[in-house]
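Sync notes, pocket subgroup
Present: LS, DG
LS reminded everyone that the earlier model was apo-only. Rerun requested with MTE included. Inputs:
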Amino acid sequence: MDATDVTDLYQEFGDERLPPGQRETTEFPVLSKSGTPDWDPETWEFTVTGAVEEELTFSWAEFRELPSVTQQQDFHCVTGWSKFDCPFTGVSFPEIAERAGVDDDAVHVMFSGLDGYTTDLPLEDCMREEVLFAWAFDGEALPADHGGPLRVVTPHKYAYKGAKWVDGVEFLTESQRGYWERRGYSQTANPWKEQRYS
Ligand SMILES: Nc1nc2c(c(=O)[nH]1)N[C@H]1C(S)=C(S)[C@@H](COP(=O)(O)O)O[C@H]1N2
Ligand SMILES: [Mo]
């Protein structure tokens, strides 16, 4: 598999690949606020709503036909572990944004998942090729407990910014807070600045 190695993106943010206060693990722990939700490939829908020229809906089959990329990425959990070299395959955030046509007054983004989870990011932090709607890990369908069928990955942010079981992205003209952000976690979540809490 041809993976683009994007693990050097840390150079934009800090001197060390491992952000401060993190330790490297080769495990891939599961962190979910509640259980793993069921999904049905026949009825699953992915929606793009809010401050866009055209709101979009994709079936699972339609989503899988979108152009995809495979990247080797690092994964930083705010609880202190980092996993290097995760091979994720999926559709980039800019690819989706371009199809919807983002309004000039959009400044923020809210992602939502099938378990009721939400997480938010400034729009400019999402408009990067490394922000993926990922459906495969290491060439295999993304495991359900890691967010399969589809999750977001944000290698430049703590991993709570990556909504598992993602089925909606909303473009916002004002900042709003997601699940953990309402509970005191950082809206910007830069691991090299240790933006864990707000
Ligand atoms: N839908 C959803 N997405 C989520 C979560 C969640 O509880 N629900 N937990 C977040 C947190 S806190 C982390 S660290 C990562 C963990 O991803 P993993 O379980 O694949 O390691 O998913 C994030 N995305
Ligand atoms: Mo987390």
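DG: The chain has one domain: 4-25+43-193.
LS: The pocket of molybdenum atom (ligand 2) is lined by residues 31, 77-79, 159-160 (CB under 6 Å).
Action: DG to write up.
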